Input
Amino acid sequence: MDPSKALEILAQRRPQTMAELALSRPESLSAQVVDLTSGQVERINDRPGPGHGPAIGAAEVEEGAVDHFNVALRDLKSKGVTGLVGEFKSVQADRVAQFAEYNRRFQQALEKSDLQDYPAIVSWATERFQVMSCRARAVIELLGRHDSAAMLGLVKRVQELEAENLTVTAAMHLDRVRLHLEVESRPELLVEGVAKNEERLGEIKLEIAKLMEEIQCELVDEAAAEAGE
Output
């Protein structure tokens, strides 16, 4: 699963009302929204974007991902294990920076009660996380062609955790929106949900940090092996 798709659980268009955004509930990573005017449940990607033309459809998103993946494969295919892992470490550094900016923009929108701009923030984040995910997937694909099972396993696990990281972050954002708009009859459940998600995000970050340390140790051994060849 491309972790950028986790962001689709939040609106990709300007909601008709603030409550419409707050009452949207993801049943899967294919986003849906309740239109309070018609009462119909529609896929978010089938609806127009917030003043930026049509929303990106699922097929278009997938096509863009394939393009990014193929470009990354082409650019990285000549690299050995150490070069590939160096690229993955670069992806991780970019992810940390993008998560920080994504959360900063969300917090700013929340504090200003300007949540109708949040769909544009999600679109911005989706595009960037998609590119990073494709770079990481290309590294995994190419590592699989080398005799480096231990390194491959570590990198794959980091990628899995990053997918969860994005999903949990997006879910927490949605719960915080609902809390902010005071549309929940039992807000204590949302408070509990936000706390659990924050706890899980802390666990994910800690596990990723430990895995990156293991990757660095494996990298030192791999570099020594390559130097001896």
About this structure: The two ends are 36 Å apart (CA to CA). Residues 187-228 form the longest helix (42 residues).
